[in-house]
Amino acid sequence: MCGIIAYLGQKNGVPIVLKGLKRLEYRGYDSAGIALKQENNLKTIKAKGKIEQLKALINGENSNIVIGHTRWATHGEPNHINAHPHTSEGIAIVHNGIIENHASLRKELEHKYNYKFQSQTDSEVIAHLIDFFYDGDFEDAFRKMLTKIDGAFGIVALHKNHNQMICARKGSPLVLGIGENETFVASDPSPFLDHTKNVVYLDEKQMVIINPDSYQIKDFNGYNLEKEVEKISYGIESIQKQGYKHFMLKEINEQNETIKNCFRGKIKDIEMVSIKKENFQRIVLVACGTSYYAALVGKYIIEKTTHLPVLVEHASEFRYRQPMLYPTDLVVAISQSGETADTLEAIRLAKKIGCSTAGMVNVTGSSIAKECGQGIYLHAGPEIGVASTKAFTSQIIALNMLNLYINKDPYYKMKVIEEIKKLPDQIKSLLENQNIKPIAEKYRNAKYFLFMARDINYPVAMEGALKLKEISYIPAEGYPAGEMKHGPIALIDSEVPSVFIVTKDSIFPKVISNMEEVKSRKGKIICICDEINEEIQRLADDIIVVPQVKWEFTPIVNVIPMQLIAYHIADMNGKNVDQPKNLAKSCTVE
Ligand code: G6P
Predict the structure, then answer these.
(1) I need a surface site. Which of 345, 376, 423, 583 has the fewest CB within 10 A?
(2) Does 47 share its domain with 75?
(3) Are residues 226 and 249 in the same domain?
(4) 20-31: per-residue pLDDT in tens?
(5) Using a 6 Å cutoff on CB, does residue 430 contact ligand 1?
């Protein structure tokens, strides 16, 4: 949800910031802008649309203090005026998050102090407040502004009279990149990764004053803080397409490796040492989007094999009702980005009630990882395609790891470990031997898709439908196969494809019966199965065979063909696969 990159150093920061914005486009891509300091002046350049549109307006500008922003609109439609940076007299700011009390602040600034607002955004108040408090001391004015605003923010500000950048974080991520005589600030490290791997993650309610030769981190009261410089473990290649047409395709194809990275080293130590597993009586999984479907898979695994009750909650719902939580609950946040606002707040709520908390997070040092303080990192590497793929399969591995941690049966544990080690090769062969493009071609113009499965693969059906609608905009629904007769069956006709997951297990015959029901209404059937038999051959119009794996891992092999169906249909239909309309990768607003 909006990306920030800022540069202060000795080079021309304009191309650095523009390149960085391109890498942050996955966070928002409806408009973009930069502000740069030239002598004692600030210049702002903004454009509606993608970074390319902004680039077209750059005309040899040169500055070694530059801030940039790519926007995902919350307040005010995506247009040139509402694009960041926002300005007041000699001040420019970029902001990620939501200023919740912007309306009252705006009213006061307009009516009492005659400030003229240009935009409809919540963010513009920040610039005017700094101006309001400014009497020659930029830092002091910035801090006074912080005392007035409520909500979530990552802010970077410039003042025409100061060779400084001042930033603050509360609720929205900011990370410093520490280079040789240059400092970067960004929403994540990707935009400066080719300049430095040395980073400092800002924590909640911390600010930084960046000067040409130094930086100082402070709390919001102005007290100096010392923070460790950390080193990013991944390289620039992980944020490049590496010959793939899209990031999503690259990320789908990485899953044999990312899965290995997720379980490697964790089989003995799953980084949950501070939770006394004997003490908790129930697990509550909170998540949003694709991560929520991974959580549902986790419920099937833990309840069936470890017999511990598991509650799965949409973080956005959980927060606003009266959740029945007990201090004996372990509340686990599942999140790729580690920044999803609802998931973060759900964990804060659980902590207030006194529950143990843990995170299953991909992005190291992210807000949710920090808030939980313990858990399992997915180690899937940066996921840039907006539609989540490799994070989902790693989340299923991590949930299996959690299950192994609490399960008491040594034989079961041994068996799972044995099977998990085989998975990367099985996935590799699935990826190398799949032939999904022709199936996608056949159904690319379908008006509607149904995805159906039972048991542990029911959440996978929902994830398959989500993938398709996210990137191809074809309406799609994931349903428990047994529920089809209570509604979706009314939609079936010869034009509607149904994707069935048919795994050879105890409920295999039940799914076959559901396929019969579709067939007798002339529906088209795409069958994802781990063994072809006569019935499947008779009923299915198209068959995708996946490797036979242990029940706990079937969601992983079954979701991959669904990811590829969605990918190829979207690509063939000319959609923007990596940046689908209206979506953002990291939802830092509620
Ligand atoms: C957004 C993304 C989804 C993601 C969801 C949850 O909607 O577009 O791909 O599944 O947020 O994100 P998280 O980072 O918490 O897993």
Answers:
(1) 583
(2) yes
(3) no
(4) 999 998 887 789
(5) no
